[in-house]
Specification:
Layout (H helix, E strand, L loop, with lengths): L1 H25 E9 L2 E5 L2 E4 L5 E3 L3 E4 L4 E6 L4 E4 L4 E8 L7 E9 L2 E4 L9 E6 L4 E4 L3 E5 L5 E7 L2 E5 L2 E5 L4 E5 L10 E2 L2 H9 L4
Parallel strand pairs: 9-11
Antiparallel strand pairs: 1-4, 1-6, 2-3, 2-5, 5-8, 6-7, 7-10, 8-9, 10-13, 11-12, 12-15, 13-14, 14-17, 15-16, 17-18
C-alpha cells in the first residue's frame, strides 16, 4: 500500500510539473503597459486586460476609446496599440538559438507601433504584421502603422520592412520614410519622407 502511495505521489508531482511547463510554454507575451480599458478574447470568451496579464497565441486584444496598450513578447519585441485598436496574436514561436522562430499578428483596426526584440536580430526567422490592406514583412525593425491620412499608412523608424498588397510591394529601408495604401487592392505608394507634423500625428496615436 505504501509503495502504491509513493508511486501515486511521484506521478502527481510529475503531472503538476508537466502541466506547469505546458502552461508556461503557452505564454507568448505579457501586458507591460495599460492606459484605460482593454479586453482580451480567448476561445470566444472576452475578459478585461490587466497589468502583467499573460497572453497566448490566438488571443485577440482590443482597446477602448482613449486607451493605450503595450504588449511585450517573450523575446522582448513590443507592440503598442492606440485607441479602438483590435489585433489577433496569430502565431509565435521563439527558442533562442533556433532558426524556426516566428511572429505573426493580424491588425483588424487601429494604430500600432512595432519594435522588434531578440528575434529581429536573428538571421533566419519569420516576422510579419497583416492588416486588411497589406502585409508588412519585418526584417528587424521599428515602425509605426495604421490609418492616418489614408486607410493604411506605414512609417519606418529603424531597420527595414516590406509592405505588400495585392497590387504590389515597396521596401522601406530609410528611417523617416513611409508609404500608404490608399484603397484595398492598390499598390503601396513609393517611399517618401514624412514631414515633422505628420510624424508627430502618428506618434500621438500610440503615446501614453
Amino acid at each position: 500500500m505504501r509503495a502504491l502511495l509513493r508511486i501515486l505521489a511521484v506521478f502527481g508531482v510529475f503531472a503538476f510539473v508537466s502541466t506547469a511547463t505546458a502552461q508556461a510554454q503557452d505564454v507568448i507575451a505579457h501586458v507591460t503597459r495599460l492606459q484605460n480599458a482593454a479586453t482580451v478574447e480567448r476561445s470566444g470568451l472576452p475578459a478585461p486586460l490587466t497589468m502583467n496579464m499573460a497572453l497566448e497565441s490566438n488571443d485577440t486584444v482590443a482597446t477602448a476609446t482613449d486607451a493605450r496598450l503595450e504588449i511585450t513578447f517573450v523575446d522582448g519585441t513590443t507592440l503598442t496599440l492606440g485607441e479602438r485598436a483590435r489585433i489577433t496574436l496569430d502565431d509565435y514561436v521563439y527558442t533562442p538559438g533556433e532558426t524556426a522562430n516566428k511572429l505573426a499578428v493580424s491588425v483588424a483596426q487601429g494604430a500600432f507601433l512595432f519594435v522588434s526584440g531578440a528575434m529581429g536580430k536573428q538571421a533566419e526567422r519569420e516576422m510579419q504584421v497583416t492588416t486588411q490592406l497589406a502585409t508588412i514583412g519585418i526584417r528587424g525593425t521599428t515602425f509605426w502603422g495604421g490609418p492616418l491620412d489614408t486607410p493604411l499608412d506605414v512609417l519606418l523608424l529603424d531597420g527595414k520592412v516590406e509592405v505588400r498588397s495585392p497590387g504590389g510591394a515597396v521596401i522601406l529601408d530609410q528611417p523617416g520614410k513611409g508609404t500608404t495604401v490608399p484603397m484595398p487592392g492598390q499598390s503601396p505608394t513609393p517611399p517618401t519622407s514624412w514631414p515633422e507634423d505628420k510624424r508627430q500625428r502618428a506618434f500621438a496615436t500610440v503615446a501614453f
